[in-house]
Amino acid sequence: MAFLDPLLAQEIVTRTMRIIDYNVNVMDANGTIVGSGEPSRIGELHEGALLALTQGRTVEVDEAMTDRLRGARPGINLPLRLEGQIVGVVGLTGKPSQVRRYGELVRMTAEMMLEQAKLMRLLARDSRLREELVLHLIRSDDASTELEEWAQRLGVNLKQPRIAAVIEIDSGTLGVDAALAEIQQLQTLLTTPERDNLIATVSLTELVVLKPTRSPHDQREQERHRARVEVLLSRMRESSKLGVRIALGHYFPGPGGIARSYRTARTTLQVGKQRHPERQAFFYQDLILPVLLDSLKTGWQAVELRRSLTRLVAQDGNGVFRKTLTYWFANDTQALATAQALNIHRNTLDYRLRRVEELTDLHLEHFDDRLLLYIALLLEGDHPAN
User: Fold this and answer.
1) What residues contact residue 225 under an 8 Å CB cut-off, 6+ apart?
2) Nearest to residue 244, comparing CAs of 292, 187, 307, 293?
3) Which has fewest Cβ within 10 Å: 53, 117, 289, 300?
4) What would the 3-class secondary structure string for 121-163 be?
């Protein structure tokens, strides 16, 4: 049976031989020895076990019987049951009168290990299916009937509002095995104590977390998400060798909402790293405009949006006018604050802004012209807003 593989069989042997001083064999549903304290016997057919399997009872083998039963030695053989079905046999080698008293203890230990192994496999299968569900949700713009039925079987409520978070993983110089162990530890942190998180490994460098939210548009709820992110980062710094960055996306209701939330989280991460490389946590609410503009970085629209700034840069050899614009927008176009930030005189600032107008053929007192330059700076990766 699938539940009695050689690894589990040998583990049963190892554990039971710690409590008794006799050899233990484990046979599968075909009577083949798959685990033994005497490794040379593994792979042999045990006809004493076959009797136990076919008759569904304990079979004792004495010296006289060994000549008639291939692969058998003196001892006892007890059928192993899992949920009422015989899945194998456990045997103790020795005179039946000596090993008989240990039979039930060994069988109980073996059956308990079988039950634990089955439970762990079911949990692992459930975890894998949940991961697959999450991967489908972040890639699908529709909620198909099949997807809803799949979620229902796993006990996942797709009507529960969720926000996507992307975790970027940097394993540094860790080997693959060590990195996988650290990622598993990170997954444990993500499910303790927040057991309602849905988690999937997208790659060795990315995890996605679908976080439940009660009031997606409530400011206090957003602050709670921020606090949880900071707690997770703190715990990671204390217990993990992984370097991580986390980005929280935006909530979108309805079919395909999770996929859109995931895309905003990924873009938030990319934009956040570009604008604030020293940070570990990024939030869509802090980067709404540059995140939304990110899709305009290519194409003819991007060329047109950048045209005025491109003209300025071409005639701005030392970059002073571009830097001035960046500081001007960062200080909400307040002249005094901008001059102080640049450590220049107010008249110098006025001169530079007039030159910007001349070089771009724009008028900074006009809102549309200001906006055009502001968007162009964002598309170029400058970050006027801190």
Assistant:
1) 163, 211, 213, 248, 283
2) 187
3) 300
4) HHHHHHHHHHHHHHHHHHHCCCCCHHHHHHHHHCCCCCCCCEE
Q: What are the CA-CA distances from residue 339 to residues 162, 218, 358 (Å)?
A: 44, 38, 20
Token output for 134: 């999450």
Provide the residue type at 245 as one letter.
Answer: R
* Whole-number Å distance between alpha carbons of 320 and 79: 85
Residue pLDDT, tens place only, 71-108: 888 999 999 999 889 999 999 999 999 999 999 999 99
| Strands of the 243-248 sheet, one edge to the other | 198-203, 206-212, 162-170, 243-248, 281-283
Tokens representing residue 110 in the block = 């073996």
CA dist list (Å): 44 to 17, 76, 79, 348: 20, 17, 18, 93
- Mean pLDDT of all residues in 316-331: 90
To the nearest whole number, what is the mean pLDDT of the chain?
A: 87
C-beta of residue 47 within 8 angstroms of C-beta of residue 69: yes
Distance CA 32, CA 35 (A): 9
* CA 170/CA 118 separation, integer angstroms: 34
Three-class secondary structure of residue 283 per DSSP: strand
| Nearest-5° Cα angle at 317, 311 to 321 | 65
Which range has the worst mean pLDDT, 31-40, 47-56, 179-188, 220-229?
179-188
* pLDDT band with cut points at 50, 70 and 90 for residue 195: low
Per-residue pLDDT reduced to its tens digit, 46-62: 999 999 999 999 999 99
Helix (H) or strand (E) holding 368: helix 367-379
